[in-house]
Amino acid sequence: MSYCRLPPNYLSTTSVYGCLPPNYLSYCRTVVSLPTTSQLPLCTVVSLPTTSRTVVTISLLSRMDQIQHKYVEANGLNHHVAEVGTGQSVVVFLHGFPEIWYSWRHQMIAVANAGYRAIAPDWRGYGLSDPPPEPEKASFGDLISDLLGILDALSIPKVFIVGKDFGAWPAYYFALLYPERVLGVATLGIPFVPPGPVTYNKYLPEGFYISRWKEPGRAEADFGRLDAKTVVRNVYILFSKTEIPIAREDQEIMDMVESSTPLPPWFTEEDLEAYGALYQKSGFRTALKVPYRSFEEEFNLPDTKVEAPSLLIMGEKDYCFKFPGMEDYIRSGQVKFFVPNLEITYLPEGTHFVQEQFPDKVNELLLTFLRKHR
Known about the structure:
By secondary structure, the protein is an alpha/beta fold. It contains 14 helices and 10 strands. It has an 8-stranded mixed beta sheet with strand order 3-4-6-5-7-8-9-10, with helices on both faces. Strands 1-2 form a two-stranded antiparallel sheet. Residues 90-322 form the AB hydrolase-1 domain.
C-alpha cells in the first residue's frame, strides 16, 4: 500500500471520476483499512491487493467535495459561506487570523458526520466575502451584525458557535446580545475577555506584533513586500511557536521568519496554497482593521455574564497563554466569573492552531460538548 500527495486541484478534474465505479468510495473502504483520515495527505492513492488497478480513495477530500459554497447577502454585502451536513442542530464556525473558512475543514466534516449542520463564513473583507465599502471603518460590531444577518437569511433560529482566535470576541458577544439564539459557545485559544482597553502592549516591548500591526501603514508596508501566500506562511510559522512574536527595533514582523524555515508539520503546502489564494483575493486591508485596530471598540452590552454552556480549548504551548495575566486569568478560574458554565480543557502540546494541529482530539472535544448540550 502506498501513499502520495496529489495536486490541490485534483478533485476539480473530471477525469478522476471517469475511471472509477460509482460506488468507489464505499468499495475502497471495505477493502482497505485507512489510517485516521484527518492525519492523511489531501488525497490517498491506494493500490488494492486484489487488482492491478490503482484506485483513488479520497480521505479528507472525500468529504471536502461535499462542502457546498454559497453567498449569503447580509448588511449589503455578499458573504461567502461554506456548509456541509443536514442535521437540525447547527454549528457555526468563526475563523481568526490568518485563517479563513478552510481552517475549520476537519471540524466541519466531523460534526457533519455526527449528524450536525456545519456552516463557516468568511468574515467581511476576508477570503471570498465582499469587503466593506470603507475597510478602515470595519468593526467587531459589523461582524456580530453580519453573523446575525447570515443566520436570519438561512432561517437558522439557534446555533452552537465555535470561535478561534479573534473569532472568540464575536462568538461570546453574540451570545450576550442574542442569548435566545445560542445553544452553546466553544472557543479555541482565546477565553472570554470583557470589553475594555487592551493593555498587553503596556507590558511588552515595542516590537510586540499587535502594537506594530495597530500602527496604520506599518503592516501594510511590511506585508506589501511579499505576496499573500508568503505573508500567511510567515504568520503561521510565527503563531505556531510558544513565544509571543516580538520584533527587534530594527526589524519588521515579516523579517522574523527566514525563507528556509519549514512549515509546521501538520500544515501542508496544499493548505498554504488554499490560504494564499484566498488572501490574494481579499488582501489584508480589512484583516488589519479587524481585529488589530478594533480592540478599543466600545460595546453596548446588556450584561457581561455569558450564561450559555461554554467550552475553552487551550493549547498549553499557545503563545497567547503568555500574554500578561492570561494564564492566571484562565487557570485561577477568574474567567468563570464571566462565563459560569465554562469547561476548560488543556492540550499539553497544543499551539495556537490546535484545530489543525490535533484535529481528531479537537473534534472529539467539540462533539462531546455538542452532544452534552444538544
